[in-house]
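Entry 12.
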Amino acid sequence: METLEMMAEAFRKASAENFKNKPRRRYPQQLREQAVEFATKSRTEGGQSVAVSARALGVSGWTLRYWLQKAGHEFGPGKRRVKPVVIHDEVLESGGLRLILRSGHEVHGLKLAELVQLIKAVG
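Predicted 3D structure (tokens):
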């Protein structure tokens, strides 16, 4: 399975090859589709923004947003992102649940209702 880094590197190489000796940059449909696939995958699996994905690919954020829009994706302000969260159901000594955020921060001793409320607040 291809990792996000491998996908980004393959896109940058194909893009550089495509624009060699060409004064105007117009991305072929195949490269646009690869960029959309990368942005979608990095968004759903890694919670990355479109801007972060665009930087990884070496294109502008506006360009990538346009391609996503043309492909039928709705990424933009006000749209909720998928943020991976790990919930461990093991019983802790404190008797509560534990939440580990992507940043590595841990919250211990939560009741289920508190856990749900915290996840909603984080976003």
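Annotation: The chain has two domains: 4-70, 86-122. The domain at 4-70 is CATH 1.10.10 (Arc Repressor Mutant, subunit A).
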